[in-house]
Design brief:
Number of strands: 6
Helix content: 55-70%
Structural class: alpha+beta
CATH class of one domain: Mainly Alpha
Mean pLDDT: 82
Shape: elongated
CATH architecture of one domain: Up-down Bundle
Strand order of the largest sheet: 1-2-3-4-5-6
Radius of gyration: 41 Å
CATH topology of one domain: Outer membrane efflux proteins (OEP)
Low-confidence stretches: 11-91
Distance between the termini: 53 Å
Amino acid sequence: MLRAFISLISATMAFGCAGTKQNVSQPEMTSAVARITVDATFSETVEPTELQSALFHDEKAEPTDENQNQPSTPSDQVSLVSSETIDQETFAIPNIPPLPGENFEPSRHGLDLEEVIYSVYQSYPLLDAAIDSREVASGERLQTLGEFDRKFKAATENGPMGYYKTYRQNIGLVQPLYQGGELFAGYKIGRGNFQPWYKERQTNEAGEFKAGFSVPLSRNRDIDARRAALWRSTFGVDAVEPDIQAQLIGFVQEGTYAYWDWVAAGAKLVIADRILKLAEARTDRIRSQVENGFLDPPELTDNLRLVAERSGKRAFAERKLQQAAVKLSLYYRDASGEPLIPGPDQIPEFPEMREIDASRVEYDAALALERRPEIYALELLRRQLDIDHSEAMNDCLPDVDLVMAAAQDIGYQTDPKNDKGPFQLDAMLYVEVPIERRKARGKIQSVSGKISQLNAKRKLTEEKIVAEVEYAYAGLIGAYKQARQAEQAVGYAEDLARRERRNFEEGLSDLLKVTLREQYAVESAEKAVDAKLLYFREQADYRAALAEDQLPISQGE
């Protein structure tokens, strides 16, 4: 009987774990991620270092004292792999695009901002990591559902020695109920010579079947620890969404910054290229005038100095453009998620600036209060605190549990009185009342304080959101006016520079005045680029303040 009972338990446990059995054996290595080669020529000339020798000896399977005392030969050392032998499939490093040509001009159909934002939505790694937090929250919720799992119970209790030799075996199932309480059913069989005071442990020949239920009548009826944990974890799953949206808003804002920095770097390269061409175009004419005695030689030297200086500034502008393109590649990616460094032929011009309507600010502020993830996150936190408060109120109630159980022995009777033969029905009522209820009252007080704190925090958060919208609007309006004024200043400075060059050609001015006028024009043009950059950055801030970026439903599922 005992062996059969143990076999039954083993078979049940094996069946229950069959769905979750995992193979923990070491996987067979089929391919290597990176290659390490041994260069014989290199190893013949370079002696092994102490670190290389130590690493080499650590990789031995079963080192002996004799092997450890012998130095490793140079041919055994691992050499550095040249860049030509690196597997391109292992390291997907984007190539830096070539430098722009001498006649560089922005394209009218270059890379659009929406393409960068779309790339952030589709393949930005940190956004993917944020989306994976859904799995974390879902897993935590699944853990709380485990409190409602059916539980298999089994026991074997035997006393083979002594005056009373007894053998008892029992198995059973317990099903917790979502409404509170639980259902239970089981089977037991008792054999042997039982003590007179333990006669209830004895069963008829074929054993005893028992089933029943337990129902809370007061405490734990509407809420208990299991349901409270499940509800909190459910709100925890929902709380992941505002966190994902908040990160998405930040990523789009950063990507937009990188995009406009790249566009601005292209615009400044155009300025540097044009001012360099002006100096180069004058060189031959000044050289001819110096050779003919119309100008002094220092004029040519000064212009050559100006060409060299402006060439250096153009090189600086090229470097800034390439750096901006590399930074943009963190947000601009291909379909497989690999970074794409945009080339100079993809640089667009600054689009037309649009002035925002002041009457929209109030409407946008109300819209931001509906969209911003901070408000929704605080709302979910409030719901979790409401669950804590309900659980604390539940702890104030007395425990009143009703238990009903029915049992029936089967088979031949083992006692002449046949006291196990009739059908048995038990009804029990258990009552437990906490007198002081300090645990419950303390929890109510603590949760009430947290709710008050949360209400104050939500009020301040709403005020901050409105202030951010107004702040972004003020920055956008100011940047728009600044950019318009900068464009006018560029027109005036370029007009003065043209006049001064014409006077110089007619012999009414000198190179110093021309240089100063052109420098003023360059500074005005660069300030205009900076003003436009500031405007479009402020536009990105306004977009972030309104929380316009949200994951689509298809991607959010």
